[in-house]
Design brief:
Length: 330
């Protein structure tokens, strides 16, 4: 059991964490999973406990694109079915209960996605972040936060924390007054246009009074767990908020850019900007890990204001998606 939205494609890993002929064992969505890449580059994901006598398959190895248990050598394919039980021989009949749970996995944008939901004939397509393609290059980092993933998501949708949490980095300039923001939601994708300004005694504009062209940037969030900050057409910060369990989240952060044309300089600039991005993320972490309770709810003991609209919409949509998956969730 894990408190997340069912029937969704979750980002679970960075593609480069999964190598051919090698087992990658991680906990995601409160499950002990292992991943590997077969010789046709296809990724597979199964649970880690052997169906024979419970050994950890993560200690095994990849043999002929299958996972071989370290204990008695049973081999499992990507669907989790045992395909060889050495002690009964190559021609032995394998009972159908020699099976571990498997998950559908796929890749997009160098992330590994896992379908956490009911078995369906046609799974929905994986959505991707607007405008990000191979014309960009990026560098990345990963960091574990001791929070429910919803808190780390809400932090990246929070437009009024910038001048405080990031007073000496991205929040310089003291733009403490929050106009709007404009929040739009459609088909699993949320967009937030940010219009923070200096406080000269004026009242903040209502979302409907804000003009998109006057906004300083746009945040885009795709349910259930990935996001980008569209700084401009050539500069993006991307994050995936991956639930390890109900109280730990691994954040994959990437800095994308394409404003520099020379590949060498481009790589260099992307790389050297990472310490700055890490600093910004740590500024967030310092505060977010103190929030109580660890998981947010639609109705809870918090007092929200107009600038929190993206958080309210996030919670509302999450609730709706959870409801529509009800009855089939684990
Ligand atoms: S415990 Fe895995 S093969 Fe026996
Ligand atoms: Fe922040």
């Amino acid at each position: 059991m894990v408190r997340v939205i069912y029937n969704q494609w979750y980002v679970v890993l960075d593609s480069k964490e999964i190598k051919r002929e090698k087992i990658t064992a991680v906990k995601r969505l409160n499950k002990d999973l292992l991943f590997w890449r077969d010789n046709s580059n296809q990724i597979h994901c199964i649970e880690r406990t052997c169906a024979h006598r419970g050994a950890d398959l993560a200690l095994g190895k990849i043999v002929n694109d299958h996972v071989q248990c370290p204990f008695h050598g049973i081999e499992y394919d990507g669907s989790g079915k045992a395909v060889l039980i050495p002690s009964i021989g190559k021609n032995g009949v394998i009972r159908s209960n020699f099976k571990v749970k498997s998950y559908h996995v796929d890749e997009k944008g160098d992330f590994v996605f896992m379908w956490f939901g009911e078995e369906r004939k046609d799974l929905p397509e994986i959505k991707w972040l607007e405008g990000i393609d191979e014309t960009f290059n990026y560098s990345s980092l990963a960091d574990i936060w001791p929070v429910h993933y919803s808190r780390s998501i809400e932090n990246q949708l929070d437009v009024s924390h910038l001048p405080f949490v990031h007073y000496n980095t991205i929040g310089r300039g003291g733009r403490t007054l929050v106009n709007g923001p404009i929040v739009e939601y459609k088909d699993g994708i949320m967009n937030v246009w940010v219009n923070n300004v200096s406080d000269n005694g004026q009242r903040p504009l209502k979302p409907e009074e804000v003009k998109k062209e006057n906004c300083i940037g746009r945040l885009q969030f795709i349910f259930p767990n990935y996001w980008q900050n569209i700084i401009n057409k050539d500069l993006r910060v991307v994050a995936a908020f991956v639930p390890i369990d109900d109280s730990n989240t691994i954040i994959y952060l990437r800095f994308y850019q394409r404003f520099l044309k020379v590949p060498f300089i481009r790589n260099f600039v992307t790389k050297i900007s990472m310490p700055f991005n890490k600093k910004v993320l740590n500024q967030d972490k310092r505060v977010v890990i103190t929030q109580k309770p660890i998981k947010s709810e639609l109705r809870m003991n918090e007092n929200l204001y107009q600038g929190d609209l993206p958080i309210i919409v996030y919670r509302r949509v999450r609730e709706e998606l959870k409801k529509s998956a009800k009855g089939v969730s684990e």
